[in-house]
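Help: read this over?
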Amino acid sequence: MQQARQNTAARQQPRDTAPPGARPRTQRAQLRTAPRKPVQGRPAAKSPQRSAVPAGNIGKPASVRNAAVRDAGVAGRVRGPRRQAVKSAEKVKKKKIKDPNRVRLFNFQSRVDVPMMIIIMVLLVFGVSMMFSAGHALSYRDNGGDSFYYVTRQMTAAGIGLVGMFFLTFLDYRCLRYELKLFGKRVTLTHILMGIAMGLNLLTIPFGIEAVAGQRRWLPIPFLGQFQPSDLMKIAVIVYFAYYIQKHSDQMRKFYDGILIPGLVLMAVILSVISQTHLSLMVIICVVFAVMLFVGGSNLKYLLPICLMVAGVVVFAVVVLDVGYFKERIVFMDPLSDPGDGSYQNYQSALALGSGGIWGKGFGNSSQKYYYLPEAQNDFVYAVLVEEFGLVGGLAVIVLFLIFVFRGFYIARRSEDKFGCLLATGITFQIGLQAFLNLGVNLCCIPNTGISMPFFSFGGTALMLQLWEMGLLLSVSKRAKLS
């Protein structure tokens, strides 16, 4: 009995003995639990991690638990192409998204309106060619036998204008309305542009170059020639009132914000250019101003009576009071009223228009440009065009300007914001109005007041600034929602 008890106690005790040459049992257990040392030159193998069973699946059948463990393992271990796709998607999410409405100095993302760009380039090339054809004889006479003087200056202005046009095309037009700190006050680039334009026009009073008729419209620029600041005033008026109407769009129905304040600014603009006796400039500025107020939402019960009253005052001052030289221009609008003196220019223009016929005499074959038609390279280039290309060529130019106007208004209608809409409306209407007023002068329908045809008439300042206006228009088209 005692021997049996000793045998039972010996079986319950742990066996620390091992066969000869073998390790004890406790050391073998420690070796099994201890981590393996990696072999020199070979990376350590990673032990597979088992996915824990989700807490919600405890107690469920084995098939459900196994499926849950398998799904968790697949979700935790994505290998191969799927893993790369997941990583790239995570990078896209982490990457900062660019705000399309953020105002930047330059905008290289969108495309310009290609039809408008084609129309502009056609008008430019055709206009410079016709200016050379109409003015090479006068250039030969007035510049010491240099027939290419006018066209050289015009092409130089066109080159500068094209550089400025492409620069303004990629410039974000919305930066014109944002405020800057200047001398402790908040101003915009629009206010700076208006101040520069008004200052330059006032400088023509003491420093302007006097023309034959006594007007002072040009400022001398050393080594460059002359600069006409009234052309800059057209752009400044359009940009300023586009900014003003956009900023006060909620109050434009009121008389104070919608009529009085803009009217006072317009009066200041007129006073800065009235010394130049430039009737066509004042007409264009006033009509563009009224159109922009109308598009901007001004109340017609205030706007319409004031426009009619202003028109009546102008007619009374010109016809009854005989202010300036405007009355005689109206009297001599008829080519046959005094063809030898007062209406000589209109009479020669009518001869050029009538001698062209249907198909014209051919490019360069005009006879009126040989010292018969005064200012053939400037205000009456359209008459020479009709003489050389006939009725077909004259209608083609009219169609080109009509396409330009319709496309410009389409860009304005599809513009992204109200500032762009008003900017495109003002630029398009100003170019179109000036072109059709010049057509009226050439056709003897309106008085001759020195209105030049855009892209066609000689004038480096006018052509350069018109191309800059086209740059602003194309900049608006880049953000417009065009089809």
Q: What stands out?
A: The CA atoms of residues 15 and 137 lie 127 Å apart. Residues 74-78, 94-99 have pLDDT under 50 and may be disordered. The chain is about 60% helix and 5% strand. The beta strands are 179-182, 185-188, 209-210, 216-221, 225-227.
